[in-house]
Specification:
- The protein is built from 5 helices and 7 strands, in the order βαβαβαβαβαββ.
- It has a single domain, classed as Rossmann fold.
- The chain has a 7-stranded parallel beta sheet.
- Helix 3 runs parallel beside helix 4.
- The radius of gyration is 15 Å and the shape is globular.
- The model has no long low-confidence stretch (mean pLDDT about 95).
- The chain has about 150 residues and is of the alpha/beta class.
- Helices cover about 30% and strands about 20% of the residues.
């Protein structure tokens, strides 16, 4: 069975990623997100791995947490050895996408549903390395000409 890692930051990115949960049973999967009070309880329902929660609002602590998450992403990647990464972003997922490409694995990036007229930072960072890049709004193809548009995942 194919090993797939579904990864996103908490909040709306995770909500969008969970729209793909009907796919979870088709794969040997792990769901990776930041550890918060809400996501800790998800371990009872899903196969979970956690990164440290951080927000760019507090820049100094965020830089330390982001650096730590890069190292932890390597550990999680090596532990689960996914063949495919599927992500809706944001910052938490970017290092994992680069790690996956370093190991020649597939990266499927789904640009945020909330973005209709401008790209996200994580989308811009991952677009060039993603094996498949999906936008949920047709106007976004102007920013990502090689992307695929299928409509929204909601």
């Amino acid at each position: 069975m194919k090993r797939v890692m579904f990864i996103s930051s908490v909040g709306g990115h995770l909500t969008q990623l969970l729209e793909l949960k009907p796919l979870f049973n088709d794969y040997n999967y792990v769901l990776v997100t930041e550890k918060t009070d809400v996501t800790k309880e998800m371990k009872n329902k899903y196969n979970m791995a956690y990164l440290v929660y951080g927000t760019r609002e507090y820049l100094i602590s965020y830089l330390f947490k982001f650096s730590f998450n890069i190292l932890k992403s390597f550990y999680i990647f090596l532990k689960y050895r996914p063949q495919v990464i599927v992500t809706t972003g944001a910052h938490t997922a970017v290092p994992m996408c680069y790690i996956a490409r370093l190991f020649r694995k597939k990266v499927i990036f789904i640009e945020s549903y909330a973005k209709r007229t401008s790209p996200t930072l994580s989308g811009r960072l991952v677009y060039k390395i993603a094996t498949t890049f999906i936008v949920q709004w047709e106007p976004m193809l102007q920013f990502y000409p090689k992307a695929k548009y299928f409509g929204g995942i909601y």
